[in-house]
Amino acid sequence: MNTIAAIRRRRRRVAENNRKRASGANRSSLRSMPTEGTTASTSQTPATLQTNTSIHSAENIVWPRFLNKLREAFSLDSLPGFEEQNIITSQVPTGPPTRPSSSERVRLTNVVDSFPPWPVAQFLVHVCMKHGVDVFFYFDQTQISNELDQFYNDTSSPLRSDPSFVCLLLAIFALGSQWTFLERRGNPPSVPEGDLGRMFFQQASSLIPDILEDDSIRSIQACFILSVYLMPMNAVGTSYLYMSMALKKALSLGLHQNPDDLLEERERETRRRLWWSIYSLERCTAIKLNRPRSVLSTSVEVPLPAPLQDLDRGQKFNNVLLQIAYARLITIMDTVVDPESTITDDDRNERLTSMEDNLKEWKNSLPEGFSLDAIPPSDSRYRAVFHLYLNYYYTRVIMGKASLIKIVRMTLRYHLGQDAQSWIIDDSTEKLARSCKRASKKLLYLFEGLDETSGTTRSAFTYFQACSIATIVSLIAGILERGFGYQRRVDLGLGLLRGMAAGNLTAEMGVKLVESLQSISDEASRKLSLSRQPFRQSHDEEPLSSSRYNDWTEWLANQRRPQASDDALMQGAAAVQPFVASMTPSIPQTELETAAGLGHDSALSLRALGMLDSLMTSSSVQQPLHVLELDLPNSSHSTTENNDDQAILMSLTGLDVSDFAALSSGAVE
């Protein structure tokens, strides 16, 4: 009979050199990890050893929990604690890891030999921790400092033969290189122009084939930091690819699941923070690039990060509160862009009210120190807090842009004669539109403050797209109303965009696209102003016209003359028609222009109004990217061969996020 005791005895029959006492089996396995021909160096810190063994922590967590859930499903008691320990012990690999091939060893050796000297490496890691961490968690800063010291000062360290760790260091060097200008003091020697971290990225990318199958925390961290490094230069392509790789690796390792108490509290919190940093940035980027969802929010079991003194006191830049605020905000942003199903108006209003309350609660819950006015621009927290507010106002823009476009569209259609009846805008739509306009103003002033305080807004995708969307919203709102400060905001937005785009051909094309929208906004505003005057005159004359009509009917009734037959009336009308035509006064030029603006050949109805009609045909932002084509006369509607470039332009300017993707249909009602 296979009793529990017999099964346990069989599990303990292992090779003599791997035999351990039952009471210390799990503890020993978590403290050491076999390496190629050597044991772990005595100089390794406990944190280092813990990370090395965390490679297999996903399996250690999943199996006991799965078996316990299975037992509960069949109304059985959960496994006792010692049985869980035996299961874990039986899963920890006892053999050496797979030996790298000779080509992999040569590649790794060449990369390590080209590392910068110790002082430079220390400096780059310091800069990365101080300026590059932002609102994310990359690694345990105390641990990485100790491992860096071991890597450089112990030539026999197993870290030197770990491609994931080497790739992680190179990623840190690359990201730190982007922020070295903030450490410039006095009159230092001039540095070359361009991307200073490119050499480190190229070396790190050469090791990617060696870490693809390595489901370790380090390989996840390396891919994640490389994606952040690439964000300013290529968010649409390579950066998103590395970010997706980090997310998939995190899923493979089970970081999205709530770990059991089998792991130490410090490691549980480290895994939790790393997951939420990767998941939140990937989700935020996917929204801004109009990409489909990678992970369902319902699949995420792990709770949000939380302060942990044992971990936080060793961080040179302790940003745990920033991490929590960012993760919460992206969770709200995720609900805002979720496509709405077929729900009633009451459900929709309830959903909008809930999102509005969540945003207000998020902002009110920020710590007192999270104010840009209270933080010096040189402080490490400045840009991190700036990014929080940027994404907060961005969320408000995308939450209300459909309402703003709806109001502009209906106003144009009514005043340009395409809709005979007036319209009714509900309170929630007006409220969302106002919130969208206010948020766009805040975004522009946010960038103005950054430009004035730090002297640079850097040509980054996140900055360019947010500034572009804020400018576009101002232009759309300006079709209906151009009050005080409108022209200044538009000039500010375009000026900032031109500064960010300097030297970047794709970004410069994006600026030209926004300038084209400015021309359309100006044209629509002029046409709308012309069309409103006749309508106001007709309403003013309505009481007088009604009074004269009553006089006419009364006089007609008093005449008591015999009515002519219908045939006689038709003959009379035909007889006097030439005389009526010859006596008709000429139409003033301004009225001709107005009439032309109302006609079906109007450039406005084909361009501005057609554009706004198309905006509302997109049900959600989760639409594929399309080519920007306006429905102009004699347009062939042929698809351009530069679809990829134009898709990049749409993402860069934020037009796809603003529901402009449907423009390719060229639909004009």
Automatic annotation (TrEMBL):
Residues 239-311 form the Xylanolytic transcriptional activator regulatory domain. InterPro entries: Fungal_SecMet_Regulators, XnlR_reg_dom. Residues 1-48 are annotated as: Disordered. It holds the Pfam family Fungal_trans. It comes from the Eukaryota. GO terms for molecular function: DNA binding; zinc ion binding. Keywords: Membrane, Nucleus, Transcription, Transcription regulation, Transmembrane, Transmembrane helix. Signal peptide: none annotated. One of its GO terms (biological process) is DNA-templated transcription. Residues 25-48 have a biased composition (Polar residues). This is Xylanolytic transcriptional activator regulatory domain-containing protein.
